[in-house]
Design brief:
2 copies of one chain form a homodimer. In chain A, helix 3 crosses helix 4 and helix 6 packs across helix 7. The longest helix of chain A is centred in the middle third of the chain and has 25 residues. Chain A contains 8 helices and 10 strands. The first copy, chain A, has 2 domains: about 140 residues, Jelly Rolls (Sandwich), CATH 2.60.120.10; about 70 residues, Arc Repressor Mutant, subunit A (Orthogonal Bundle). Helix content of chain A is about 40%, strand content about 20%. The first copy, chain A, starts with a helix and ends with a helix. A 4-stranded antiparallel beta sheet of chain A has the order 2-6-4-5, with no helix packed on it. In chain A, strands 1-7-3 form a 3-stranded antiparallel beta sheet. Chains A and B meet through helix 3 and helix 4 of A and helix 3 and helix 4 of B. Chain A binds a DNA duplex (30 and 30 nucleotides) through helix 7.
Amino acid sequence: MYQILLNSPLFKGLTIDELNDLFLHVKHQIRQFRNGEMLAQAGDEVDKAIILLEGRLQGEMVDFAGNSLKIEELDPPQMVAAAFLFGPKSLFPVYLSAKSDGKILVVTKKEFTAMLTLESRIMVNYLNIVSGKAQFLSGKINFLSLKTIREKVAFYLLQQMTHSGKKSLSIEQTQTNLSELFGVTRPSLSRTILEMEKQEILRWSRDLVTILDLKKLNEILGR
Amino acid sequence: MYQILLNSPLFKGLTIDELNDLFLHVKHQIRQFRNGEMLAQAGDEVDKAIILLEGRLQGEMVDFAGNSLKIEELDPPQMVAAAFLFGPKSLFPVYLSAKSDGKILVVTKKEFTAMLTLESRIMVNYLNIVSGKAQFLSGKINFLSLKTIREKVAFYLLQQMTHSGKKSLSIEQTQTNLSELFGVTRPSLSRTILEMEKQEILRWSRDLVTILDLKKLNEILGR
DNA sequence: AATAATTTGTAACATTTGTTACAAATGCAA
DNA sequence: TTGCATTTGTAACAAATGTTACAAATTATT
């Protein structure tokens, strides 16, 4: 178990001996789960820290309209619903179920809090996790508040460019995947891309995208 | 100063003596600022904890399209960019400027971390703040991923209802304000509301909204 | 009360995106 | 290669929302 936890964002930087020692003091529980099992429902109170040790979990954001329920998969050794353990409400945001057999590490909120107090490296790690989530969501909101498909494409490509630094991007995604990411239909995305090609802003052939006119791409987002 | 901090979410639960004692150990700085002054730009690294003591700050989310740049105002004794002090990047998300003369309390990230370690009540408070932000953003994303104006109206009203518990809601907002909140144009919102009135789902007169058919309202969101 | 400002209703039309369906192109495997 | 699956291009049409402009209703101000 400790070997797995060594790689987790939460316990990063600790040695295996320190981990070993830590869990002599921190009350915890190992729970097995089976494929298909329901672990938590949206709205349940979160009063335990859960870290996935083995297997695969899936959180289903039950999207009201029902049509595009977003699914987030979780692999070890990630923490479940990290940003929902504290806060004014502390309610599970998703329906959590198992995609395979596996194991989780369970620590009550009280013990978890004590652990953070005990070992400030873990506290900082946890703060990095939760803050990171908040920052990710903040970025996502920026993206979602873009109105036209053109804007979304431009934003996405410029973001990819700053990561790679090149004008030729190899998009590892099909247009079908991208359209889901953007929350639009596939033909509409295709149409928009073709328009942008006709306007010589970019060239998009399968998974290779070349930016032809960076200036225009920026103008789409108002510079 | 300590009197102000007593009411802050971060130092909630501490006595004035404890606060007094705390800041004997924690290095800090009080900084005056003047109306109109720029305190931070989007993209600046966040390496200090900033708590507003007096005056008024404003964060401008420079919205790419330029048209609807979102503005968030900050009143004492709130912490500035609380969810951006930790995390993998730690970059300021907004352009921060002063709307009046005032004072801020500045603590370096290092000292701030030490403070959290020193006093676990503050740590828990801070976790509640950051987690609360993440949860707020998560809810906002749910809202933004609603596609039609009907859905947004339904979601908004149902949310208001769970807060008040009544079928008659006094919306303290004009349709103009609401349309901005929803990210749609005012005539479009008006049209949608009128349609819903014709379908006897609700009655909307000025700032008083009565839900006539709760079932239909839920159906709009897929139950 | 009279006037002005704000808010809301309304309509014609443009734009964007969704829907559906099918064809063309490409990649993959037998 | 051949055949099949996946991905992408395309088009006609529907639906939703934006744009613009103005009228009506309401509220605030003098």
